[in-house]
């Protein structure tokens, strides 16, 4: 199908004018395609990862090996989504570079949050599809949700939310049987 900007236009959900490669702490949520419970199940308030969930967790843990300015904080892989906190540091950044958010929409920006998440989603998709023998099958929804964490109390609340997420799975808005899902 040929690209038609009137039909295929995707509006960015990022904060307009914000530089997502700058130093900061970010809360990330990434959902599976059609919110399929692809990564395992919750049993006794604990997440039990299946092989696909293990791939997602291993790839998340590997992000700093590929993006030297990114450090990991709390993370949980849930049956149909992942919550994590990423910290972008100053380490190795050339401060003389122009502001990357001025570049064209949709192009990868070295060291940016979107580039790191896009790379993560790509490698997870390739590895899972190799295991299940289904090349080209989507694993993730397009895009991801982010929240810029601006204070220590907010960081602590979000860490607590991530750590307790498996215990509240039955009422989670991303639970497939939740009547209030959006």
UniProtKB/TrEMBL annotation:
Domain Transposase IS200-like residues, every copy: 21-165
SMART domains named among the record's database cross-references: Y1_Tnp
Name of the protein described by the UniProt record: Transposase
Taxonomic source organism: Funiculus sociatus GB2-A5
């Amino acid at each position: 199908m040929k690209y038609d900007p009137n039909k295929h236009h995707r509006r960015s959900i990022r904060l307009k004018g914000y530089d997502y490669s700058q130093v900061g702490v970010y809360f990330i949520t990434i959902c599976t395609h059609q919110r399929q419970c692809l990564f395992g199940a919750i049993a006794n308030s604990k997440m039990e990862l299946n092989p696909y969930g293990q791939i997602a967790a291993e790839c998340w843990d590997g992000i700093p090996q590929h993006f030297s300015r990114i450090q990991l904080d709390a993370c949980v892989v849930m049956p149909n989504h992942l919550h994590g906190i990423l910290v972008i540091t100053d380490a190795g950044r050339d401060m003389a570079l122009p502001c990357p958010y001025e570049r064209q929409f949709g192009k990868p920006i070295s060291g940016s949050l979107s580039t790191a998440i896009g790379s993560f989603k790509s490698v997870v998709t390739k590895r899972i599809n190799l295991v299940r023998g289904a090349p080209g099958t989507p694993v993730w929804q397009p895009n991801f949700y982010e929240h810029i964490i601006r204070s220590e109390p907010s960081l602590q609340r979000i860490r607590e939310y991530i750590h307790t997420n498996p215990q509240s799975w039955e009422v989670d808005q991303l639970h497939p049987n939740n009547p209030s899902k959006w």
